[in-house]
Write a structure and sequence with these properties.
Belongs to the protein kinase superfamily. This is Protein kinase domain-containing protein. It comes from Crotalaria pallida. The chain is α+β, with helices and mostly antiparallel strands. Helices cover 34% and strands 19% of the residues. It is built from 12 helices and 18 strands. Strands 3-7-8-6-5-4 form a 6-stranded mixed sheet, with helices on both faces. A two-stranded antiparallel ribbon has the order 1-2. A hairpin with a 2-residue loop joins strand 7 and strand 8. The protein is globular and about 60 Å long.
Length: 385
C-alpha cells in the first residue's frame, strides 16, 4: 500500500509532479506490530500545537518551521511544517518520510508519523528537550554552558554511531548530505540523535557514488561534492569532521576575519595542531576542564576527516573506533602523519564566494523531476553514475 501526492501545473513547471512513498512496505518488513509511526490528521496536529502558535515554535529554516506539541495522551512531539506547497517541498517531504520510516537506531531521530492533507505536509517526531547541538554552541543555550566535556564526547561518539547505521547497516545504504550542528538533536539525557533526512540519498549495493544536484550547508560541504556533485559516504565523513572541530572548539565552520575575508575552521585549526597548541583549540567555555588526550584525539580525527582528498579520509566505522580510543597505534599514526608536521600556507576567502556564513544552503531547484527519480528510484535499481 502507498499514498500518492500530486500537485498540478505551475508557471515554472509544465508537468504533473507525482510522489510515491512506500511506507507500508517498510512496516511489512518489520511486521505490523513493530511499526512505530502512524498517519496523523491535520485536526490532531492543530490541536497538539495550539494551531501552530508562534509561542510553540522551536525553530525555522529554509524548509519551514518546527513546532512543539502535546498529544492527547500527554506525549510531547515536534512537528515540521513545510513552508510552501511546491514540487521541491513535496520531494523533500517524500524523501524524508521514506527514509525515516526505514531507519531504527538509538542515535537517529525516529519518525512518529506524518500528515498529508490538502496542501499541508507535516512530519512528526519525538520532541527533543535539549533541542540541537547548534543551539548549545551558537544559539539560545550557548551562554548556559550545558555541554561539559563528557557530554561533548558522548555526542561525538553517538552521532558517529548513528551515521555508521546509515552508511553500513541500512539497506540500501544512506548518505545524509547535511550533517551539521542543527541536525544533531539532543534528548533529555543529552544523547545525540541525527535528524533531517530531506537531502538524503539511497545508494544501492555496488554503487561507489551518485552524481546529483549539490545540496547541503556551506562550510560543511566536501570539496569534491561542492565542485562536481559526486556524493558518497566520504562526503558525510568530511561534514562530520567539521562538526567535530565545531564541537571541540565552539567555533563556527566559517568565520569572518574582516568585512571581506573569511576563514574556514580547518584553516584556523590546522596550524595550531602543527604547533601543538591544543589548549588554544578548546572551547573557552570549558574553562580548561577537559581530558587533554581526548581533546587531541577529537581534533586529530576531525582534521583527518575534513581533509580535501576523499580517498585519505577514514570511514565512519574507523571514526567511531578512533573516538573511543580503541586503537592507540592508529591515533599515533595520524599524529605523526605529514599533514601535521608543518603549518600549511593558508589562502583566505576574499568574500567573493557565496558562502556568507555557515547557515547558507545550497538547494538547486532545477530539474526536479530528475532529482525525484534519483531519490525515490534507488530502491528499484535506477541508474547510478
Amino acid at each position: 500500500m502507498a499514498f500518492w501526492l500530486c500537485c498540478g501545473n505551475s508557471d515554472r513547471y509544465d508537468f504533473m509532479f507525482v510522489v510515491v512513498v512506500s511506507l507500508y512496505s517498510c512496516s511489512k518488513k518489520r511486521g505490523k506490530a513493530n511499526a512505530t509511526w502512524r498517519v496523523f490528521s491535520l485536526k490532531e496536529l492543530h490541536s497538539a500545537t495550539n494551531n501552530f502558535n508562534y509561542d510553540n515554535k522551536l525553530g525555522e529554516g529554509g524548509f519551514g518551521s518546527v513546532y512543539w506539541g502535546q498529544l492527547w495522551d500527554g506525549s510531547q512531539i515536534a512537528v515540521k511544517r513545510l513552508k510552501v506547497f511546491s514540487n521541491k517541498a513535496e520531494m523533500e517531504f517524500a524523501v524524508e518520510v521514506e527514509i525515516l520510516a526505514r531507519v531504527q537506531h538509538k542515535n537517529l531521530l525516529s519518525l512518529r508519523g506524518y500528515c498529508a492533507e490538502g496542501q499541508e505536509r507535516l512530519i512528526v517526531y519525538d520532541y527533543m528537550p535539549n533541542l540541537s547541538l547548534q543551539s548549545h554552541l551558537h544559539g539560545q543555550h550557548s551562554a548556559e554552558c550545558l555541554l561539559d566535556w563528557n557530554r561533548r564526547m558522548n555526542i561525538a561518539i553517538g552521532s558517529a554511531e548513528g551515521i555508521v547505521y546509515l552508511h553500513h547497516q541500512a539497506t540500501p545504504h544512506i548518505i545524509h548530505r547535511d550533517i551539521k550542528g542543527s541536525n544533531v538533536l539532543l534528548d533529555s539525557d543529552f544523547q545525540a540523535r541525527v535528524a533531517d533526512f530531506g537531502f538524503a540519498k539511497l545508494i544501492p549495493d555496488g554503487a561507489t557514488h551518485v552524481t546529483t544536484k549539490v545540496k547541503g550547508t556551506l562550510g560543511y560541504l566536501a570539496p569534491e561534492y561542492a565542485m562536481l556533485g559526486k556524493a558518497n559516504e566520504s562526503c558525510d565523513v568530511f561534514s562530520f569532521g567539521i562538526l567535530l572541530l565545531e564541537l571541540a572548539s565552539g567555533r563556527k565552520p566559517i568565520e569572518k576575519i574582516s568585512s571581506s575575508v573569511k576563514r574556514s575552521i580547518v584553516d584556523w585549526a590546522l596550524p595550531l595542531v602543527c604547533e601543538k597548541k591544543f589548549s588554544e583549540l578548546a572551547d573557552p567555555r570549558l574553562n580548561g576542564e577537559y581530558v587533554e588526550e581526548e581533546l587531541k584525539r577529537v581534533i586529530f580525527v576531525a582534521l583527518v576527516c575534513a581533509q580535501s582528498q576523499p580517498e585519505k579520509r577514514p570511514t565512519v566505522l574507523d571514526v567511531v573506533e578512533l573516538l573511543k580510543g580503541k586503537s592507540k597505534e592508529k591515533i599515533s599514526e595520524i599524529e605523526n602523519s605529514e599533514m601535521f608536521r608543518s603549518p600549511p600556507a593558508v589562502e583566505f576567502n576574499d568574500g567573493a564566494s557565496a558562502a556568507e556564513d555557515s547557515s547558507d544552503f545550497i538547494s538547486a531547484e532545477k530539474e526536479l523531476k530528475q532529482e525525484l527519480t534519483e531519490n525515490t528510484g534507488a530502491m528499484n535499481d535506477t541508474k547510478i553514475n
